[in-house]
Amino acid sequence: MQAFLFATGIENSYPTISRAGGTLRVDEMAKTGHYGRVAEDLRLAKDLGIDLLRYGPPYYLIHAGPGTYHWEHADEAFNLIRELGIAPCADLCHFGVPDWLQNFQNPDFPAHFAEYAGAFAQRYPWVRLYTPINEMYVTAHFSAQLGLWNECLSSDRAFVTATRLIGRANILATEAILKVQPSARFIQSESSEYFHPADPDAVALARRLNERRFLSLDLCYGYDLCATTYEFLLENGMRKEDFRFFMEHNIRPVCIMGNDYYATNEHIVHPDGRTEAYEMLGYYVITKQYYDRYRLPVMHTETNNRDSNGSEKDACSWLKRQWGNLVRLKEDGVPIIGFTWYSLIDQVDWDSLLVEDKGSVNELGLYDLQRRIRPVGLAYRDLIQTWRGHISNGMLSIY
């Protein structure tokens, strides 16, 4: 029986945001104090009893230029991860790129990122699990359609350009890693979205958005798009030869579909395009939609919550609810191989989607920023101990 993967991750977002005519790098590992507490944080993860740690060294600091790398932080972290016997899922690009690559509108990004991925695999050949680019849909949406991060653009054309280049980079990186480590597998962590129409006038828009949420995975998995989505791409700069690249290079056979789910992943959409977060269907229904589309093994790759008044009662309740959804999906035949509470440590400024540099502590971790375990951390540790040996992934060995 292959072990079911209980996981957590260390939040490592590093987009740039616009500030006074320039840019500001927002590095969550710096904000949470991780760089000075690497060994302590990794041992806290080990103490929980997890099998898998989502860990991403800072791409923007490591890849100093074409063929030039500064591996110091990655060496420290991955050597200790290996010593502790934790299986890592290497998260190679998490919402940002090095300054010299500028942003996700750069047509040179895919080739340079693939070079970096291959170099990473050569340096750490024992690593078998990867997320080449985290949440491709969110990366493109926030950077090129909402205007919040990186290129800070707000247009369909910019969104399609970012989606195309991110998808191409993801595929080329996967191919580069496989040349070095043929047994590698790719847990493609992606936000699981759903759009509910606010009234009859919003139905058509909700349908379009509910197709578009799949776009990055459709391209990387070689899924044959519906006509309206294909037309949307062509109208906004994608060429037929670009689309053929995705159909001919799909990486589906070596992928595990990672589904991230938060209460904010569901949206009520109004006819004028305004949206508001509103949880309605839950993890079971939405993940089943993604599974029915791609028929791939699934890993629950992110979730968290806290009570609005600052107490942790709701976090523990949310953990039980998400775990219950997962068990029901597994009982109903969906091949789920793992579950993740994200992240290990509290986060900073995610309440403003990282665009306000206020130092606002978001109490979403299994441990607080002083590295004291939270009630949800105790509950997750107990859940792991209770279920270990009674649930299997049925297909994946991580060592």
Automatic annotation (TrEMBL):
<protein>
    <submittedName>
        <fullName>Family 1 glycosylhydrolase</fullName>
    </submittedName>
</protein>
<dbReference type="Pfam" id="PF00232">
    <property type="entry name" value="Glyco_hydro_1"/>
</dbReference>
<dbReference type="InterPro" id="IPR017853">
    <property type="entry name" value="GH"/>
</dbReference>
<keyword id="KW-0378">Hydrolase</keyword>
<dbReference type="GO" id="GO:0005975">
    <property type="term" value="P:carbohydrate metabolic process"/>
</dbReference>
<dbReference type="InterPro" id="IPR001360">
    <property type="entry name" value="Glyco_hydro_1"/>
</dbReference>
<dbReference type="GO" id="GO:0004553">
    <property type="term" value="F:hydrolase activity, hydrolyzing O-glycosyl compounds"/>
</dbReference>
<dbReference type="InterPro" id="IPR051923">
    <property type="entry name" value="Glycosyl_Hydrolase_39"/>
</dbReference>
